[in-house]
Write a sequence for this structure.
């Protein structure tokens, strides 16, 4: 199964100009076409399943792409509570390395600085178990089957090497304070390993693993003191809580769907996006397959709510949590048409779908749901500004800058550029965007000036970012 064949099938199915597949599908295709060491048992299977599901779903669901649910009207202001104003966040990613973009290609990852210069390159085949970015954006980490290597995000220079436990990595997450790297490994059981990035020491604890199960995700609480694992989300789902009080990894609780009168939903996708909110008291999970959003009460391990969204087909929405944990935007990938929904995470309210503005003269689609909105601010990562006040939308004619929460258009940048994905530097002063054909990386100042167009030698995929959906 070649990626070229898949692209031609997608083009035929849509009967329109081919647009690059979503990031998740693109990574799945890579897993199929280029199996990596250590992933022969699980990785290629997950990639094949994800690719097959996504391709089949697109073909099957295209005939109902404009289903009746998409024609629903928004509730009137009288029946809907207002969206919360964003809480401005401090801009902390100010190191030079945090301003450099790292872009994936077929076989390696390149680094491009704010002046449009390629300043580093890492071989993705050598780091075949994953490449990640630290919470502060200053360090890039690559993993082999036995070790984890830290590289400077500024120039790619090797900084330190850590040992890691054996097993296929199913999830990786950095603690918000930058001290810990947690890995979920697949062996006979699931193994949670937490690496102290300051001392290099590591701790491991096991989680029971049903036969043939290899789905799992790890999430830290905002204060970095606790870690949660959700495993086997295809069912029965297991939630496990860990504490890192005084630097000691300790399991503090566990619950499984079907036991002790608990019933959790299941997700058939190979990936979910999760975030701990409400000061560490709630876990929100987005399923890439059906677009459902689950809410778990963490003190009691109960399912407190479930919201069905209007995702047209599997993998079409990119979940974007605002830094203050108040909103979840569900943004449709540009290749399948612009559309967005928003969930008020505190009130569990879904609004949309709406078409985001593509011109400065258009009105904000959620304007009637707010009172006073913050206007100003600079930008961050994928693709919310570091202060949490702006959302960036890649479009066929540039990058739209939209105000949070009402999505009022603030600016339109590089109107002649057919953008596919956007990443914002840590200090918000530089905007990076890949082109829809994957051949160009656009680098520009936050106001759209000083544009540099970098010719990418190989197809530009996604960005290596501190946050991802």
């Amino acid at each position: 199964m070649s990626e070229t064949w898949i692209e031609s099938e997608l083009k035929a199915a849509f009967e329109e100009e081919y647009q690059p597949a979503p990031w998740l599908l693109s990574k799945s295709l890579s897993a199929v076409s280029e199996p990596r060491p250590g992933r022969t048992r699980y990785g290629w299977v997950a990639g094949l399943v994800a690719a097959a599901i996504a391709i089949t779903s697109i073909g099957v669901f295209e005939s109902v792409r404009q289903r009746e649910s998409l024609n629903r009207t928004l509730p009137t202001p009288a029946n809907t509570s207002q969206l919360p104003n964003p809480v401005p966040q401090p801009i902390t990613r100010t190191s030079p390395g945090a301003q450099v973009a790292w872009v994936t290609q077929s076989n390696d990852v390149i680094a491009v600085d704010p002046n449009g210069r390629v300043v580093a390159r890492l071989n993705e085949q050598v780091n075949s178990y994953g490449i990640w970015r630290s919470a502060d954006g200053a360090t890039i980490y690559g993993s082999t089957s036995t070790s984890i290597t830290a590289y400077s995000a500024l120039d790619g220079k090797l900084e330190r090497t850590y040992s890691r436990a054996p097993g296929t990595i199913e999830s990786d997450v950095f603690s918000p304070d930058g001290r810990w790297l947690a890995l979920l490994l697949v062996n006979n059981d699931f193994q949670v390993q937490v690496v102290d990035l300051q001392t290099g020491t590591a701790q491991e604890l096991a989680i029971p693993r049903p036969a043939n199960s290899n789905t799992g995700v790890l999430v830290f609480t905002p204060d970095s003191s606790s870690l949660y694992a959700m495993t086997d989300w295809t069912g029965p789902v297991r939630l496990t809580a860990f504490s890192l009080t005084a630097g000691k990894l300790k399991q503090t609780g566990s619950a499984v769907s079907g036991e002790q009168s608990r019933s959790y939903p299941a997700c058939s996708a190979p990936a979910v996006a999760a975030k701990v909110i409400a000061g560490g008291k709630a876990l929100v999970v987005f399923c890439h397959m059906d677009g459902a959003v689950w809410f778990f009460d963490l003190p009691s391990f109960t399912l407190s709510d479930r919201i069905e969204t209007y995702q047209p087909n599997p993998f079409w929405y990119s979940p974007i949590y605002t830094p203050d944990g108040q909103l979840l935007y569900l943004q449709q990938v540009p290749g399948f048409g612009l559309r967005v929904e928003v969930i008020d995470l505190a009130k569990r309210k879904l609004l949309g779908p709406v078409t985001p503005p593509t011109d400065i003269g258009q009105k904000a689609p959620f304007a009637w749901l707010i009172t006073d909105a913050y206007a100003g601010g600079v930008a961050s990562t994928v693709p919310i500004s570091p202060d949490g006040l702006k959302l960036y939308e890649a479009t066929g004619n540039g990058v739209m800058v939209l105000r949070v929460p009402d999505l009022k258009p603030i600016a339109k940048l590089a109107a002649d550029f057919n953008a596919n994905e956007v990443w914002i530097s840590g200090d918000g002063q530089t905007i990076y965007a890949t082109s829809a054909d994957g051949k160009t990386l656009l680098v520009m100042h936050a106001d759209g000036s000083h544009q540099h167009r970098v010719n990418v030698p190989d197809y530009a995929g996604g960005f290596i970012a501190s946050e991802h959906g």
Summary: The longest strand covers residues 168-174. The helical segments are 3-14, 23-33, 43-61. The chain has three helices and 30 strands. The radius of gyration is 21 Å.
